[in-house]
Amino acid sequence: MDHFIQIITTTDDERLARRIADSLVDKRLAACVQILGPITSVYRWKGKMETAREWQCLVKTSHDRYGAVEATIKAIHSYETPEIIALPIAAGSREYLEWLRDELAGS
Prior knowledge:
The chain is an alpha+beta fold.
Protein backbone atom coordinates (compact mmCIF):
# COMPACT_ATOMS: atom_id res chain seq x y z
CA MET A 1 0.00 0.00 0.00
CA ASP A 2 1.19 3.52 -0.77
CA HIS A 3 1.83 5.76 2.21
CA PHE A 4 0.72 9.24 1.26
CA ILE A 5 1.31 12.34 3.37
CA GLN A 6 0.37 16.00 3.32
CA ILE A 7 3.22 18.36 4.10
CA ILE A 8 2.40 21.85 5.34
CA THR A 9 4.60 24.91 5.03
CA THR A 10 3.92 28.64 5.21
CA THR A 11 5.60 31.71 3.76
CA ASP A 12 5.07 35.45 3.96
CA ASP A 13 5.25 35.90 0.18
CA GLU A 14 2.62 34.60 -2.24
CA ARG A 15 5.16 34.46 -5.09
CA LEU A 16 7.47 32.36 -2.94
CA ALA A 17 4.61 29.98 -2.16
CA ARG A 18 4.07 29.64 -5.91
CA ARG A 19 7.81 28.98 -6.49
CA ILE A 20 7.73 26.23 -3.88
CA ALA A 21 4.61 24.69 -5.43
CA ASP A 22 5.95 24.91 -8.98
CA SER A 23 9.28 23.37 -8.01
CA LEU A 24 7.76 20.46 -6.11
CA VAL A 25 5.24 19.58 -8.83
CA ASP A 26 7.76 20.07 -11.66
CA LYS A 27 10.23 17.68 -9.97
CA ARG A 28 7.40 15.18 -9.29
CA LEU A 29 8.06 15.47 -5.58
CA ALA A 30 4.39 16.40 -5.18
CA ALA A 31 1.31 15.56 -7.21
CA CYS A 32 -0.47 18.70 -6.04
CA VAL A 33 0.24 21.76 -3.93
CA GLN A 34 -2.64 23.93 -2.82
CA ILE A 35 -1.86 27.52 -1.81
CA LEU A 36 -4.19 29.09 0.74
CA GLY A 37 -4.11 32.64 1.88
CA PRO A 38 -3.58 35.08 2.99
CA ILE A 39 -3.89 33.68 6.50
CA THR A 40 -2.91 35.23 9.81
CA SER A 41 -0.34 33.44 11.95
CA VAL A 42 0.24 34.31 15.60
CA TYR A 43 3.37 32.86 17.17
CA ARG A 44 6.29 33.51 19.46
CA TRP A 45 9.67 34.03 17.79
CA LYS A 46 12.87 34.73 19.74
CA GLY A 47 10.89 35.68 22.82
CA LYS A 48 8.47 38.08 21.12
CA MET A 49 4.84 37.66 20.14
CA GLU A 50 4.53 38.03 16.38
CA THR A 51 1.66 38.27 13.93
CA ALA A 52 2.25 37.65 10.24
CA ARG A 53 0.29 37.52 7.02
CA GLU A 54 1.20 34.23 5.34
CA TRP A 55 0.32 31.79 2.58
CA GLN A 56 0.02 28.12 3.42
CA CYS A 57 1.12 25.36 1.05
CA LEU A 58 -0.54 21.94 1.35
CA VAL A 59 1.72 19.44 -0.41
CA LYS A 60 0.31 16.02 -1.43
CA THR A 61 3.08 13.45 -1.77
CA SER A 62 4.34 10.05 -0.63
CA HIS A 63 6.20 9.30 2.58
CA ASP A 64 9.33 8.23 0.72
CA ARG A 65 9.63 11.71 -0.87
CA TYR A 66 9.54 13.59 2.45
CA GLY A 67 13.31 14.16 2.63
CA ALA A 68 13.51 15.55 -0.90
CA VAL A 69 10.46 17.77 -0.33
CA GLU A 70 11.94 19.14 2.90
CA ALA A 71 15.31 19.81 1.21
CA THR A 72 13.61 21.58 -1.72
CA ILE A 73 11.50 23.77 0.55
CA LYS A 74 14.53 24.72 2.65
CA ALA A 75 16.57 25.56 -0.46
CA ILE A 76 13.88 27.97 -1.71
CA HIS A 77 12.42 29.30 1.55
CA SER A 78 13.30 32.69 3.01
CA TYR A 79 12.59 31.83 6.67
CA GLU A 80 15.37 30.92 9.08
CA THR A 81 13.17 28.11 10.43
CA PRO A 82 10.29 27.37 8.05
CA GLU A 83 7.33 25.34 9.17
CA ILE A 84 7.63 21.93 7.52
CA ILE A 85 5.38 19.29 9.03
CA ALA A 86 3.93 16.11 7.59
CA LEU A 87 0.61 14.47 8.36
CA PRO A 88 -0.38 11.00 7.19
CA ILE A 89 -3.27 10.69 4.78
CA ALA A 90 -5.23 8.01 6.61
CA ALA A 91 -7.93 7.57 3.97
CA GLY A 92 -9.18 9.01 0.72
CA SER A 93 -11.27 8.18 -2.28
CA ARG A 94 -9.83 5.33 -4.32
CA GLU A 95 -9.84 7.46 -7.46
CA TYR A 96 -7.99 10.36 -5.85
CA LEU A 97 -5.36 8.13 -4.27
CA GLU A 98 -4.85 6.34 -7.60
CA TRP A 99 -4.41 9.71 -9.30
CA LEU A 100 -1.93 10.75 -6.61
CA ARG A 101 0.07 7.54 -7.06
CA ASP A 102 0.04 7.86 -10.86
CA GLU A 103 1.15 11.50 -10.82
CA LEU A 104 4.03 10.78 -8.49
CA ALA A 105 5.06 7.84 -10.68
CA GLY A 106 4.99 10.01 -13.77
CA SER A 107 2.18 8.13 -15.47
